Each structure stands twice: as C-alpha cells, then as structure tokens.
Amino acid sequence: MRPWWGKSSSKEVKKKGSKESFIDTLHRRFKSPSDGKLSSRSGVSRRHLNDTVSEMGAQSRPDSRSPSPPSKHVSRCQSFAERLSAQPLPRPGVHPAAVGRADSELGVTTKPRLEKAPKSFLPLPRPACIRNKSNQADLDGDLITASVSSASSTDIDDPVDLNQPSPRATDCDLGTRTTVSSPSSGVLKDHASTASIMKPREAKKPAKLSLCTFTTPTSPNRRPLRGHVPNLQVPHHGAFCSAPDSSMSSPSRSPLRGFGTDHAANSALWAGRPYTDVTLLGSGHCSSPGSGYNSGQNSMGGDMTGQLFWYQTRGSPECSPIPSPRMASPGPSSRVQSGAVTPIHPRAGGSGTIESQTSWPEDGKQQTHRLPLPPVTISNSSPFSHPNSTATSPSVPRSPGRAENPTSPGSRWKKGKLLGRGTFGHVYVGFNSESGEMCAMKEVTLFSDDAKSRESAKQLMQEIALLSRLRHPNIVQYYGSEQVDDKLYIYLEYVSGGSIYKILQDYGQLGELAIRSYTQQILSGLAFLHSKSTVHRDIKGANILVDPNGRVKLADFGMAKHITGQSCPLSFKGSPYWMAPEVIKNSSGCNLAVDIWSLGCTVLEMATTKPPWSQFEGVAAMFKIGNSKDLPAIPDQLSDEGKDFVRQCLQRNPSHRPTAAQLLDHPFVKSAAPVERSLPSPEFTDTPPGLTNGVKALVFVHKLSLV
Ligand SMILES: Nc1ncnc2c1ncn2[C@@H]1O[C@H](COP(=O)(O)OP(=O)(O)OP(=O)(O)O)[C@@H](O)[C@H]1O
C-alpha cells in the first residue's frame, strides 16, 4: 500500500556486516523462537511467572488467558508477558491535540522541614509564570539564562549545543549565574556574581563533580517573581549535558544502562558470561510500576548482570513488576544505553508545521536561556538563604509514599509524595506552600563514589540541558533545578495522570480513540523535538505522561541527544522492546527514525498493554528485533488506519519510515479530535443534556465543552 505521503514501503535490504556479528552470536546461542503472535483480539499473550529462568532467550510460555483481574492484583514483579490480561477499558474521554491548557492536578504535599541551605542553585521554578503566559514572548520573558561549563567531554556523547547565546536571553536582569565546574580543571567559572560552592572533596574528585557542581549567587535576594533571575550555564559540546557514551556510563537502576557500543562485548554478555571489560553496575533496584513507582527497572544500562543471571527483587514495594529488572521483560523503563551519536534521519530535520518555541544553538557558541522563576513570591527573602538552610539536605523518605524530610529549602518546594523511582533516583511531588503550586521533583544523589551516581548526575544534567530548551505542549516543562547538599533536584511540570505504562497497568488497553489521541500528541512532541535535531531515544509508554485531561507529555529526556552530524554511529541506547532494529544491529544511517520505530511499538503497547515481542525474554526479543525480518503482529482491534500507521513506523529500513511531521498527516492521527476541555464555568440549567422532555430536573452543572 502506498503511503499517504507518497513513498512506498520497501523491503529491507539485509546487510550482513561485521556490526552484526553479535547477532550471529545470538543466533548460535539462542534458538530462534517461533513468533508469538498476538492474540487476534487482545493482542496479548501471557505466560506463567518464571522465577527461575535459567537460560536467556527462552521464549515465554503462553498461558491460557484468564479474565482481566483488577489492576491491584497485578504483581509488581511481572513482566509484560507475565502480566495478566488487561481489563477492558472504558473509553477515556480523551481528545487529541491538547496543546492549550496546562492545568495539572495537585498531589499530596508534606510538611516542610528545611534543614540545609542549598549549596548552589540553578534556575528556580515558577510554574505559574509558564501557565500564565499567553504567548511565547511572555514565556521567554520568564526564562533565565543558564550556562554550564565543562572541560571534559571524553565520556560524553551528547554535545548539546547549549552554550550559544540565546537570541532571546539576556543577563541584564539576572542577579546571579550558576556555573558548573570543569572536571578537568576543577575550577568553577565565575560569571557575573557567581560564587563557587565547590566542596573540598569536589575539587579532589572532579570526575564526580564535573557533572553538576553549581555555584550559587553571592547574595541574590530574590525579588518577587521576575525580580531575580539566576543564570545557569550549560555546557557546550562535550559537556555533561550530553548523554553518556561510555559502555559503563549508565546508572544501574536501569539494569542495562551503559551497555557498550561494542557489540562484541554484547555478544559475550548475551552468551551468558560477563564481558570482562564491562563493569557491572547497579544494585538491582527496581521500581514498582503497579504501585506508582513505575520507573527504572529493566532498563538496559550499566548493569548487565541482571540480564545474564536473572536475579530478581520481588516482593519489595520498590520492585519491578518484572521478574528481573533486566532485560527479562519490557518493563516501563527498560533501557539500553551506550555509545555513540545517532545519525540523522535522512528525511528528518524539522517540521514547518511544528511550533517552535525555543531557539536552538546552531553555531556552537554558548547559549544562555532564561528559565522560569520558581513560584516564590516572597520578597525580602533570598532563595539561597532559607531559614533552615543550614540543616541537612532532604532525606530519603522512609516510606515509599511519603517523604520524611519534605523540603527543598532554596526554592521552597516541599518534597511530597513519591511519584516514582527511575534510573536517576526518585521523583516526588513538589509543593510550594507560598504559591500553592505543585511540580514534580526529580532527585538524584550526587558526589557518591560509585559510577552509578556519576552517571546519574551526568544524565540528569543532560536532561536539564535539553529540557530547559524545549517548550512544547506535549513535552514536560522544565522549571528549574538546584543542588541541595548532595542532592540535585530538577523541577518539572507535574503531570498527575502518570505514565501511559501505568495507565495500561491500571486500566488495561486503550481504545482506538484514545490511542489516536495519544499518538497524535506524541507525534506532535516528537515532531517538535526532531525539528530541533534532537532524538529522544527512549519513547515508550513509561516515558509518556498523561494529565487528567488526556494531554500527553513526553518525559524522561535522560537518553535524549542533540544530533550534530550525520556520520555518527548509532548509540546502543533505549529500551529493548521499543528499540529499533538498526540500534540493535548498530547499523548506520538513521537517527531520528529510531523514535518513529519506538512510537510504533508504543502504539502497539497502548493497544495491547505490551510492546511488540513481549512474549520473548529481553535478549531473545532483541534478537528477534535485530535479526529477523519479522514484524510484530498487529492486533485486529486496530482499525486499518491504525494498522497502516504501525506498519509505517515499524519499517525495518529506517529510511523508509516517515518522519514525525509526515506521520502527523496520517489518517490515523490526522482525524483525531483535539483535546480541549474548557474550564468549567458554572451554569444553571433546568434541562440537563441527555434528559428527555419528560425528565427534567433543576441541576447545577458545569459546562463541559469538547472542542
Ligand atoms: N513530570 C512528572 N509528573 C508526574 N510524574 C512524573 C514526572 N516525571 C516523572 N514522574 C514519575 O516518576 C517516574 C520516574 O520518572 P523518570 O522515568 O523520569 O525517572 P528516570 O530516573 O528518568 O527513570 P528512567 O530513566 O529509568 O526511565 C515516572 O515513571 C513517573 O511515574
């Protein structure tokens, strides 16, 4: 069938090259599993829990389907394949293309307990500044300049061009700047009235601090709202804003992060023995998607052991719903990362139809960008000198659901309920008792001696660097960040609906209208992202948040990368089940298209609650994706348009995949109704909709219009 944009799908030309040698190894190691076709209706197959997986790559055993149990019965340590069938969904009242309002729901807050002043500050958040803006000019007006310096780039593969002067950013109204020290020099760059706060041991261990050593302003008395605007310098090429390239670079909460680009090593690992040159990181932590702490497990990164030995951490509230937090199954945060830069998609490169709300550096110069102020309106109070500023940093909550020491002194964000655990650490609800606003606080511990902490910091800084430059209705908004003792906090727009992954867990597969809506919005965010030559590299349900109005936000940019060239090799990063074949095979020639493949997998995930090939264990799934010519079964319940959309996304040849901008014109999403639910306005009527003439009641209703 000829694609709607005029390019026919073509067969993939199999390229047998040296880069695929690991696949060959896999071929020998694993029996090629027969395709587990998705059920025609549900598209979901299940299998028994297997606590004693002795051999990787074994195909999951299908089990008889049982009625969908309540979500609360879903084991926290089940894999996708193990998860019970999803319940039929009441079709959510989702309506696509919500790009207007940004009303997040509030979460739980906790009592403040300020203990210690933040050692340094990055731009402090003020969500209200964002929400109240009616246009981009207003938005820009609340940005603060930011810059981070770094001299070491050897282990960083994401040279985000963040050091270039922003055409819209100015320093004139900034009381301070925050800088990041160079790891090599251990010297903080002083900008404006910046004061270094580097700890002694930081200077001794530049490698640890290079990623996030910030300076605080000398005495930046915060002025109400826009009065005080600190600067944050973000690094130029090679700074810590980049995604790690090191094969050992990834934190271990995502089990297989840091998976090296060396696929020979991969082969060895997959063969069942650790590659001697690969450091096995990680603690085996896993999150509990079912319980709301749904991130971090089963990612491919620094820790390969789980993939190899299948140790499990069940029963813990922090445990993954997956038997092994490794590649055993497609958990919400299954990731692999290593390596190199992703080449540019041949046909990607921006979308004229996509709202471009941020400037992107093009000339390599240092860029400054103004960030929104925190929602602190108290004057005569320095954000850097909180009354409790000498106390200790916020402590890790004892209970998974509530922080023990809920406070972020400088910004007055109080750390509240735990939203989830990810690769980098924890994400909490943040509440500003002064403004009454909420945010999501992503917390990561710095200055630890382990590689995991270093990698976490590096990736978090990359996320900051990227997110701080992106502003789009379908991308989670970055508010600011700060360091408090050994903790780095990143403040984000709070998207209270949770991730698509969690929604699927809780409510089962989505109906087509919801899928169309979500897909359209994901595409909108992706098209914007790609127009900035940035690839997300970890598109999946767990990294897509949904607000109560059905608005979708791309999140978790820890894997994202700004593409600067076309000749760069692919990074072996991502989540196995959503990973494009070319990434697994380490073939060349694509880049942004990896997100399109992952989007296709996400559509299938939304339709079936599981990604493609979820019936296979992690390594076997990767083998299936990377080595076979098969395409995953597409569930029958999807419309023909939906099926075609998925097929377009899941073309093995990346150059044949349409771009995000092109996909926005696909009938599957183009016809999706936009999400726009007006604010309820009290209305008094005596004839409620739906009542017959004979059934009239005097009721007070809220006007709810769907545009
Ligand atoms: N802005 C947000 N609003 C609401 N919840 C959020 C937000 N950001 C993250 N969360 C929650 O926290 C969890 C972990 O977040 P996130 O995935 O970004 O952390 P992470 O360390 O990047 O994880 P990973 O890299 O392993 O995917 C998410 O699954 C989600 O439930």
Give the names of the bound compounds.
Answer: adenosine-5'-triphosphate
- Averaged pLDDT: 56
Proportion of residues in extended strands: 5-15%
Specify the biggest β-sheet. 6 strands, antiparallel
Based on CA inertia axes, which overall geometry fits?
A: globular
Count every helix, treating DSSP H or I runs of 4 or more residues as helices: 16
Number of strands: 20
Strand pairing plus helix content: what structural class?
A: alpha+beta
The radius of gyration computed from the alpha-carbon positions, rounded to a whole number of angstroms, is: 24 Å
Strand order in space, largest sheet: 3-13-14-12-11-10
Unreliable parts: 6-123, 125-330, 337-409, 691-707
Helix fraction? 10-25%
Distance between the termini: 33 Å
